[in-house]
Amino acid sequence: MVTLEYLVQYAKQTGFIFQGSEIYGGLANTWDYGPLGTNLKKNIKEAWLKKFLRQGPNIVGLDSSILLNPLVWQASGHLSGFSDPLIENKTSNQRYRADKLILEHDPNAKPDGWTLEQMYQYIIDNKIKDPVSGTTDWLPIRKFNMMFKTFQGVVEDTANEVYLRPETAQGIFINFKNIQRTTRKKVPFGVAQVGKSFRNEITPGNFIFRTREFEQMELEFFCKPGTEIEWFNWWLEYMKQFLLNLGIKEENLKFEPHAKEALSHYSNATTDIEFKYPWGFDELWGLASRTSFDLTQHQNLSKEDMTYLDPETNERYIPYVVEPAVGVERLALVFLLNGLEEQELPGGDSRQLLRIHPALAPYKAAILPLMKKDHGAKADEIYKKLAENFDVVYDETQNIGKRYRRQDAIGTPFCITVDHQTMEDNTVTVRFRDTMEQIRMDVDKLESFIRESLKF
What we know:
The protein is built from 15 helices and 23 strands. The protein is of the alpha+beta class. Among the domains are: about 5-65 and about 170-335, Bira Bifunctional Protein, Domain 2 (BirA Bifunctional Protein, domain 2); about 365-455, Rossmann fold (3-Layer(aba) Sandwich), CATH 3.40.50.800. Strand 17 (about 340-345) and strand 18 form a beta hairpin. Helix 5 (about 100-105) crosses helix 6. The radius of gyration is 25 Å and the shape is globular. It starts with a helix and ends with a helix. It is found in: Cytoplasm. GO terms for molecular function: ATP binding; bis(5'-nucleosyl)-tetraphosphatase (asymmetrical) activity; glycine-tRNA ligase activity. Keywords: Aminoacyl-tRNA synthetase, ATP-binding, Cytoplasm, Ligase, Nucleotide-binding, Protein biosynthesis.
């Protein structure tokens, strides 16, 4: 696996990811997605929607507002409890997440279930030093709420305070009755949503691993109480197969169930799917059994009935919820780390190679005229035809070998070369990215060939 520093440089040079506001010196922890990054993110979202919305069990979609009535966050507990343990060093004035400092000191520690006092005592007893000042002069740990606050309207006062949503899930919960009524779905059913969320993280970092602005892909699956653990296990396997089918190496995955004392107050089961990043195993995808907590909280505060009448048993209950939740940017990071390599070739040569599933590749094919003068018009004709259905790229600059290498580096699975034989029999050379094997193919078969490669 490449280093994080290598990946950052690669992402900038190829057009996957740029530093946000770079011409003004940047803005910490903001990233802009270039042409390739935009396509990669789009393809990740389309792959997730295909498997979790279209092909999932009884799933519908939602696109809820980023700005919600502040009472939503009061009911959900975010106003009082959506916080991280913040610790500040008196010498450097640097602030850190206390639990992350502990884990950096001892990766085997389990601070998730600890009180603020226990974490502080551990840091003092183990003489954990500030990475900046090198001192152990720490202030007591306090809670830091991660919600971004803003104002709605022309007057900036408490009455007009609103928050940028820290998760998309609450938009689903408050629309539960609307969705169930209009779709006439019977429990069990789910609601899938893709959208921006915002968290004022204390210590964001590791490139795009943890950012303050990110896109979430969340699914809330409503089921009958008592069946949630069965569904929890079903979704965990479904998530695993999604990753494996898209090419993630199984040895890079680990499943970490949360200990009882580390569970969120609303959860009766949580498991993180972890990926082996350059810094070690860390969270990729979370699965939580949220019980009936959210719907109950919204029922209590809004006074709206959130119960469901089971038409088969005539029983009325508040459904339990199982939630798979993953970040688009984190998946993008994982697919890049999982597939990027420097491959040694016979003869002492090497190439930069991004092994990525064709469904996720920014471009599905590159159309290359062997000689611009003789083959450019035909290559352009093929490009325009394929572009009606796929993201493809046309490249006529430099010799054919260098063009192959450019496409290998950005993950393009097929290079389609138009040459003299094309003009005679309407066939092209199709070169495969991973093996560098080449075959001849009729131009009329290209579309079906590419379409078949996108299946997973």
